[in-house]
Amino acid sequence: MRRASLLSPLLAAAAAVVVAVVSAEPASTLSGPSRPVTVPLGDRGHAVDLPDTDPRVQRRVKGWAPEQIAVALSAEPTSAWVSWITGDFQMGGAVKPLDPSTVGSVVRYGRAADSLLQEAAGESLVYSQLYPFEGLQNYTSGIIHHVRLQGLEPGTKYYYQCGDPAIPDAMSDVHAFQTMPAVGPKSYPGKIAVVGDLGLTYNTTSTVEHMVRNQPDLVLLLGDVCYANLYLTNGTGADCYSCTFAKSTPIHETYQPRWDYWGRYMEPVTSTIPMMVVEGNHEIEEQIHNKTFASYSSRFAFPSEESGSLSPFYYSFDVGGIHFIMLASYADYKKSGEQYRWLEKDLAKVDRSVTPWVIAGWHAPWYTTYKAHYREAECMRVEMEELLYSYGVDKMATSHADEAGHCPDPASTPDPFMGGFCASNLTSGPAAGSFCWDRQPEYSAYRESSFGHGILEVKNETHALWRWHRNQDLYNTVGDEVHIVREPHKCLIDSTRLAY
């Protein structure tokens, strides 16, 4: 979707997931499969970016005061990350990076706003986006800080300040966040918001406002964050970069200040609600020396080391009775690669008597009947799907599907970062047969082209509720919903530790 959070989740549970039209009593996966449903295309409106003159994206702090404050989870609920930026970015032909050692990385925290007696220190860095071509502007970031808080109590509200207490006016206001429930089969967060392709448009503001009204405990952002790569370095943007600029630019440019605008706009949410991010194609952002993903890798904190992946592109974490796995569509996913080997080890370690639910998320969908990116992730599916099925992964969520329409020739759609063309493998898989927008396959239970967000509520070891909230509806109105019921006794599994 063009920068406004159209999420097309693939729900893969122990039984086939069936999503039905909303009724008084939500449908259940136990009642399916049912006849596929397609909602007629409507006018979603045009995604218009927030301009740099919008007060919500402008820098509101002075000196070394923190901004773009965000909380992320660690691998377990006893730990969390706090991130922020000090100092302003620079744009120009010649830019000189700030010295990260200029400002300390300190978080003071505690269980009362007036008693921040605990303190943790972390690391800081800057990154640059450089283009070795005449006329293009370079970028270097403010100082990005990441501090890990440890020894936290699960299910507890913590207050915190971040910054450098040794420098006058270099500490933030007091913020607060709630740690996740303790790991265990009887413990679950209230609501988990799921969004993708969020961007920074007026549609984004509607999505975020609707999402906040639902009071989620955790947000999963499945790639395509701010769409800085739809801009030239002079700040000129377009809906379609390749259509507008590709023939006139020596490299795919980006306008990195859009990242700072996004961080400022999102701070009221990210400073209070933990957000976990995984990369999308719009985070690739090629620059000098073929370097990619510089902004994504620098701006967010990930529980990579804690979960044994050592990569910002894939990692895992536990929340109550849920084991979350975030995978990379744009890193090596072959069976011989590091990501696959890490995934195999991570799944083998899961004890379903402790975390009954295993939920995976990534950016590019394996099954989609949307025109854009059609069968683009087929190579990833061929490599990884069998492994996820063999360990009985309960639910998978993706984004990336941009628009409805008739399907193109699959050979014309592979993304060079996705590993090539593997669509012929579909003929023997669960999605065998032809499918396009006007020929809905059996595995596609419900589809609708709308901007919005999803809310997942895991109730207990076997039951969860998935709801889709559309931007065009009133707050707290449900556009679609389904009960997801785990049936582990029906799954093909590789380990006896997965059943109980």
Automatic annotation (TrEMBL):
Where is the segment annotated Disordered? 28-47
- Ranges for domain Purple acid phosphatase N-terminal come to 66-179
Domain Calcineurin-like phosphoesterase, first and last residues per copy: 191-400
> Any signal peptide, and if so, which residues?
1-24
Q: What does it catalyze?
A: a phosphate monoester + H2O = an alcohol + phosphate
Describe the location of the Purple acid phosphatase C-terminal domain by residue ranges: 435-481
Query: Which keywords fit this entry according to its UniProt record?
Result: Glycoprotein, Hydrolase, Signal
Could you tell me the EC number(s) of this protein? 3.1.3.2
Q: Which GO terms describe its molecular function?
A: acid phosphatase activity; metal ion binding
Q: Which InterPro entries match?
A: Calcineurin-like_PHP, Metallo-depent_PP-like, MPP_PAP, PAPs-like, PAPs_C, PAPs_N, Purple_acid_Pase-like_N
UniProt-listed CDD domains: MPP_PAPs
By sequence similarity, the record places it as follows:
Belongs to the metallophosphoesterase superfamily. Purple acid phosphatase family.
In its UniProt entry, what is this protein called? Purple acid phosphatase
- Organism in which the protein naturally occurs: Dichanthelium oligosanthes
